[in-house]
UniProtKB/TrEMBL annotation:
GO molecular function, one term: DNA binding
Keywords: DNA-binding, Plasmid, Transcription, Transcription regulation
Keyword Hydrolase: no
Annotated protein name in UniProt: LysR family transcriptional regulator
Coiled-coil residues: none
Record carries keyword RNA-binding: no
Organism the protein comes from: Streptantibioticus cattleyicolor (strain ATCC 35852 / DSM 46488 / JCM 4925 / NBRC 14057 / NRRL 8057)
Length: 316
């Protein structure tokens, strides 16, 4: 029994006439009559009464048609669901990220993706770069946003592109002498109590600060250690000292604080988006398309790094 047999039976029941049903189906009447007869033999019961006034379902036919209509509805729904999945409109995306990526650019990317793909289930996990790299390699994540490119076993099988460039900035209380200044120099920082982050992703940042301030810097040795950039800003607002962190902190202004550029300008590790090179899932493709829109300078890098995605069938 095939789906066409179900369609033929439903059409015949609706038109109550072999000729009208055949025309509606776009086939000749004799093949329709034969297919209905074959269906009745397979079912083992007469499904239609042929009378001078029309063709009408028997009791067995009514029971069969109830199930047939449901089956056809399920087939139609399955076709729709398959098309949506192929377009990345349904499914699951597992994203690992460092906390500071929630300052920039994840809010715009996730907001847009959620609006345009409301039926994709987002599973979001805050984790350090080393952990998200291992999770990507193990297939436990679909995409990750890390500080600097992934390193370690299996990283060579990942596609990685920068999605954000950072440099060092300072944040102080509006009551601090530096408030209102556009920039602050290294020599001035050496004379101030500092607030720095010491999270799992901060070794590269710490190395940059050591190079900037000097390894014998007493200011750095006595710095207040914060868990993340949000704590740096909060402590600076309290007047604890001068907070040092990535320029993405500018995306999180807080009343009572002032941001200064640090001179000389000191670059920090990039934010990097990574995913498995072998992953050609439609949901990941849809997410990367959203990243392209929100981070225009990323598009060319993505196109250069990834192999062509499978061509979608016309009409999907």
């Amino acid at each position: 029994m095939e789906a066409r047999h179900l369609r033929y039976a439903v059409a015949l029941a609706g038109h109550q006439h072999f000729g009208r049903a055949a025309r509606a189906l776009g086939i000749a009447q004799p093949p329709l009559s034969k297919q209905i007869a074959d269906l009745e033999r397979e079912v083992g019961a007469r499904l239609f009464d042929r009378t001078r006034h029309g063709v009408f379902p028997t009791a067995a036919g009514e029971a069969f048609l109830t199930r047939a209509r449901r089956a056809l509805d399920e087939i139609a729904a399955a076709t729709v669901d398959a098309g949506r999945a192929a377009r990345g409109e349904t499914g699951r995306l597992r994203l690992g990220f460092i906390a500071s990526a929630l300052l920039e650019p994840l809010p715009a990317v996730l907001g847009r993706f959620g609006r345009e793909h409301p039926d994709v289930r987002l599973e979001l996990h805050e984790m350090a770069t080393s952990r998200s790299t291992a999770a990507l390699v193990a297939g436990e994540l679909d995409v990750a946003v890390t500080l600097g490119p992934p390193r370690g076993a299996g990283a060579e099988h990942l596609v990685s592109v920068p999605i954000g460039h950072d440099h060092l900035v300072a944040v102080v209380s509006t009551a601090h002498p530096y408030a209102g200044r556009p920039s602050v120099g290294v020599g001035q920082l050496r004379r101030q109590p500092l607030i720095v982050s010491a999270g799992e992703d901060e070794p590269a940042v710490a190395a940059g600060l050591l190079a900037l301030l000097g390894r014998d810097s007493t200011a750095l040795a006595g710095a207040t250690v914060a868990r993340d950039v949000h704590t740096i800003i909060g402590l600076a607002a309290c007047g604890v000292g001068v907070g040092l962190g990535p320029s993405r902190m500018l995306a999180a202004p807080r009343p009572g604080t002032w941001f200064c550029e640090v001179t000389p300008r000191t670059s920090l590790p990039d934010l990097v988006l990574s995913f498995a090179a072998r992953d050609d899932s439609p949901v990941l493709s849809a997410f990367l398309d959203t990243v392209r829109v929100n981070c225009p300078d990323v598009g060319a890098a993505l196109d250069h790094r990834i192999r062509p995605r499978p061509t979608r069938l016309a009409g999907t």
